[in-house]
Amino acid sequence: MNTLGKKIRLLRHQKGWSQEDVAKRLDISIPAFSKIETGITDVNLSRLNQIAKLFNLSLVQLLSTSDANEEKEKFEEINELNQRLQVREAEVIDLQKKVIDLYEQLHKK
């Protein structure tokens, strides 16, 4: 079973649908849908769009190999790194102010 087929199968299970349910919604035979899930047949773009719409996904989301948990973890990591960067930038600004103050004190004498 290929990655796309596994994802479609997982989405189908999440909805509680049988292969027959999805096949009817896609207006194809059960064996044709089974071949999509198992990766036996290649899926054309039109059919991919139809499957994506059926599961309320964009085509990119359907074809994406990362799952929602991975995306959430990456998003959280990016947010954490952005926060750490903001703290470091504030520290740099404080140090720059100190350097300017010291420079001014040296040149007042």
Q: Could you give the topology of this structure?
A:
Blueprint: H1 3-15, H2 19-26, H3 30-38, H4 45-54, H5 59-63, H6 68-108
Helix pairs in contact: 2-3
Keywords: Coiled coil, DNA-binding
Pfam families: HTH_31 (PF13560)
Domain HTH cro/C1-type: 8-62
Measured on Cα atoms, how large is the radius of gyration? Answer: 27 Å
Task: Please report which band the strand proportion falls in: under 5%, 5-15%, 15-25%, 25-35%, 35-45% or over 45%.
Answer: under 5%
Distance between the termini: 79 Å
Helix tally equals 6
How would you sum up the major sheet?
none
**Subunit organisation of the chains:** single chain
On the 0-100 scale, what is the average pLDDT?
91
Please report the total strand number as a whole number.
Answer: 0
The stretches of 5 or more residues where confidence is low (pLDDT under 50) are none
Secondary structural class:
mainly alpha
**Helix and strand string, N-terminal first?**
HHHHHH
Approximately how much helix is present in the residues? over 70%
The coarse overall form would be: rod-shaped
Structure, described:
This is Helix-turn-helix transcriptional regulator. The chain is mainly α. 79% of the residues lie in helices and 0% in strands. The chain starts with a helix and ends with a helix.
